[in-house]
Amino acid sequence: MKTFRAVSILASAFVLTTIAHAKDICVISSVDPAPTVFRKVKKLKPGSAIALNGFHIRFTDRRLVPVSGTALMQRDGTVLIGIFLHAMGLSGQEPTYYERMTTDTTFEGTGYYDNNADARPDGVETWSSVSCKDITLP
Description:
The protein is mostly beta strands.
């Protein structure tokens, strides 16, 4: 019984520690001044990769667009991010587009975007970290 309690306590501590390290990260792009919100981002370590999920608030009409992707940390601490912004269903004409970024752990950095689904960069952008508390949902 004592072993079961000890294992239960350790498991609870692990879960709480994992939850405590997951935080929301918000960025603004130099191309589209509307925010992208990444929900419950786990802490990265060199050589690790994590799933990214969240949403982008479109600048033009303030609609929410689903975002998914991956972030990985290189040995030098640089974070590489690849995300898809799923614009499907909003007008029927907009493709899903992607962004490839090189950032720090706050997701501030530079990279490229493809906004016409041809798998080629269409431009350069910069992400700036912003407080998620300042973002209001439509």
